[in-house]
Design a protein that fits this description.
binds zinc ion, 436 residues, 10-stranded mixed β-sheet, 4-stranded antiparallel β-sheet, single chain, 22 strands, alpha/beta
Length: 436
């Protein structure tokens, strides 16, 4: 079969007189991966020294992240979410939080780079450690008023609105890997989502063995891998499974600082595919299709952010390291695959803060001065590292409106991201690379 394809390919070249050159884009999004989350991970794992792969990437810029208000799209919201950030990255346009590639207030669909790639004959893949219909992957392949309209019958769907999973399958995303078993029995027309997916040529894979088997689908097939009911479990957890805590005080309201502890492996993650494994499989599938146009692949490390919401620094760092290993794998792929660019960025920042250690002389030592959730961790090198989440006294920390990094590898000189840019510029530049 491959032999026939190669012959046809050579025939195509001799007829047109030009060599078809496939172009590929791999866009990696660390959800909630602001510089604070990166610094925390670098400090914990490498004691501030070299070790993170992303620190070795030479081309780096900083992206300004904003969103719009839904009640008045003329006004800015200075903190976005994964829906507005995903939409900015997928469409190059701003919207309000919770919206998936629809305009603020007016709910009009905004075209995504993945849709344009499909229309132009490219293959498209989406990989996430979250449920595959989560805001980041959804922003590339669906248009809904609310990110939680994921499957039929959910309250967030407007009357008659087509849910995210229905739209993703109808668009025909070639490779989808992530969580989402709960979507399979959902209603679609007279049957289920699973029946519809199979009718559209999807091979559904459900566990790490099938993922790692190395048996690729038929060249004409699509692949949908579901490895959890909803989101995939995180790789790491806090000491004794605990997240950051409100600080304890004695009878005089003096702080009783906790002892520094190490992060642990999360036993629930055992048997779960890593982001790197899923991304490798997606690249194998897309490569095997030998599409003469090329492919667009989005890979999301989703739970850097989900753990930060929970004030779970160990959870966040374990996911950050998994994401970092995936970036390395993607760039190694690009190094041996001509005309392949890799862009690494985040959708928004999280609430993580690296703060002073208790020994610091002016450190305030009463309970009133430490209002949020506090964790003292022991780094790989035996240093003590303080992590603080102060946007809520409970486990629902917010995002923050800081800039996010933009790393790139393989971009032509005139398209390399440099200096301070707007998050919305990324899509236009990738589209220029891929389609022009
Ligand atoms: Zn979030």
């Amino acid at each position: 079969m491959r032999q026939i394809f190669i012959s046809l390919f050579i025939l195509a070249i001799s007829v047109t007189g030009a060599v078809a050159k496939p172009k590929n884009v791999i866009l990696l999004i660390g959800d909630g991966m602001g510089e604070a989350e990166i610094a925390l991970t670098r400090n914990y794992e490498f004691d501030s020294g070299p070790g993170l792969y992303i620190d070795t990437i030479k081309n780096k810029a900083s992206a300004i992240v904003v969103a719009l208000r839904n009640d008045d799209p003329e006004k800015y919201a200075f903190v976005g979410d994964s829906a507005s950030g995903g939409t900015a990255l997928a469409t190059g346009m701003l919207t309000s939080v919770r919206r998936i590639s629809t305009t603020a207030m007016y709910n009009k669909p905004m075209k995504t780079i993945a849709e344009e790639a499909k229309e132009k004959g490219f293959n498209v893949g989406l990989v996430s450690t979250a449920v595959i219909t989560d805001a980041t992957p959804a922003s590339f392949a669906a248009h809904v008023n609310n990110r939680y309209c994921m499957r039929y019958g959910q309250d967030s769907c407007l009357p008659g609105e087509k849910p995210i999973i229905d739209q993703m399958l109808e668009l025909g995303i070639d490779v989808m890997l992530g969580g989402g078993n709960l979507h399979l029995p959902a209603k679609y027309a007279d049957g289920t989502i699973e029946e519809f997916a199979v009718s559209q040529g999807y091979e559904i894979i459900r566990d790490i063995d099938q993922l790692a088997s190395g048996e690729l689908s038929n060249k004409n097939d699509k692949v949908w891998g579901v490895f959890a009911d909803h989101h995939l479990p995180r790789e790491w957890q806090g000491p004794d499974g605990k997240w950051a805590q409100l600080i304890e005080t004695d009878a005089d309201n003096n702080v009783i600082f906790p002892k520094a502890r190490r992060c642990e492996l999360n036993p629930e993650h055992a048997g779960t595919p890593t982001l790197e494994m899923m991304s490798k499989r997606a690249l194998d599938e897309l490569t095997a299709k030998q599409n003469e146009k090329g492919f667009f692949l989005m890979i999301e490390g989703a739970s850097i952010d989900k753990a930060a919401h929970d004030a779970d620094p160990c959870g966040s760092m374990g996911e950050m390291l998994a994401f970092d290993r995936t970036v390395k794998m993607a760039i190694e792929y690009a190094k041996k695959t001509p005309d392949t660019v890799v862009v690494v960025t985040a959708d928004h920042g999280g609430a993580t803060q690296n703060i002073h250690h208790p020994y610091y002389e002016d450190y305030k030592r009463t309970g009133d001065n430490i209002p949020g959730l506090y964790n003292l961790l022991e780094t790989n090198g035996g240093n003590e590292l303080v992590v603080f989440y102060g946007t809520n006294r409970e486990y629902d920390q917010t995002h923050t409106g800081i800039n996010v990094p933009v790393f790139s590898y393989g971009m032509p000189d005139d398209l390399v991201f440099r200096g301070t840019i707007r998050q919305t510029e990324i899509k236009d530049t990738l589209a220029e690379y891929l389609f022009e």
